Amino acid sequence: MRIVVGGTFDIIHVGHIRFLWAAKKLAENSELIVIVARDETVKKIKGREPIFSEEERLEIVSNLKPVDKAVLGYKIGERSFFDILLELKPDIVALGYDQKINENDIREWAKRNDLNIKVIRLPKFECEISSSTMVREKIFNKLDEKLNHFAH
After folding, report:
1. pLDDT by residue (tens digit) across 94-104?
2. How far apart are the C-alpha atoms of 43 and 68, rounded to whole Å?
3. CB atoms < 10 A from the CB of 10, how many?
4. Which segments within 37-111 are labelled E, that is strand?
């Protein structure tokens, strides 16, 4: 079974790892393929530059244990998320709890294209730091504490 997930994967944290393992375990003997968002897509969706370049994020994700293959998404305007699904032909698309894409849009598109794709929205995986934003905030808070310590 081929399972596809997508995301930015800018600052890898425990929430990402739990998400990837949960996706991988949706089927026995699965192949997990991760679509890594392009830099320009990150800027458009998140409103900020990624910390790591798309090539660096692709290399990082490619080397995570649950990941069988990682690919870069298409550039904006080049082709769509649906086009990459046509190429990858997944049996399952696993979405993160906070991803904006609608499950029913994928299901309807798959039906129109004679594809049998199961779409699953995975839950938020509880951990102390479960988003890249939280990682940034923790770093800034620690830095602020250090600067305040030295100022006094």
Report:
1. 999 989 899 99
2. 27
3. 26
4. 69-72, 92-95
Residue 100 CB: number of other CB atoms within 10 A?
A: 7
Domains of the chain and any CATH numbers: 2-126 (3.40.50.620)
CB of 125 closer than 8 Å to CB of 17: no
Q: At residue 92, what is the residue type?
A: I
The tens digit of pLDDT for each residue in 30-87 reads 999 999 999 999 999 889 899 999 999 999 999 999 999 999 999 888 888 899 999 9
Tracing tokens 């979405």 back to the chain, one arrives at 95
How would you write 12-50 as a 3-class SS string? CCHHHHHHHHHHHCCCCCCEEEEEECCHHHHHHHHCCCC
Distance from C-alpha of 83 to C-alpha of 91, rounded to nearest angstrom = 15
SS3 101: coil
| Global confidence as pTM | 0.86
